[in-house]
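Protein translocase subunit SecD: structure, please.
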Amino acid sequence: MAPPTSSQIKPGRTLLLLLAIIAAMGAAVVLQNAYIPKFGLDLAGGTTVTLSPETLDNKAPSQESLDRAVNIIRDRVNGQGISDAQVARASDNILIQIPGAGQEEALKLVATTAELRFRQVLAVAPAQEQPAALPSDAASPAPSGTLPAVTPSAAASPA
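Here you go.
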């Protein structure tokens, strides 16, 4: 058997290099605190709310209206930035699960009725034409292609 030369692969060194890379990756994970799992609703605790819909004529609401309500509530909860919140239909009820403590403002937002408000625009001014070119200084004459300045009339002022 021939003595090993420098060009032959040595499995011991390759294995040692691989273990060093794995140890460095593990140390990076530990130093970043990324190994701490985030607990879900079942382990961390949280709030569970069941909403029962009521209609004016005491009939069961349609599936379409329940789906629309679930989507609206889901948008409200997700708009608060709460992670892992679940909003789902459970037969004729809506089940809301919010993990973590201190989520009272999210529940208040879900419980309130949405309002759509309209407001009147007080005044609308007519569009004004801008001159084609502005003079470089006030003493120089205006170019021949510019339009005269337009001032708003008294009819455009708010009543």
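Notes: The mean pLDDT is 74.
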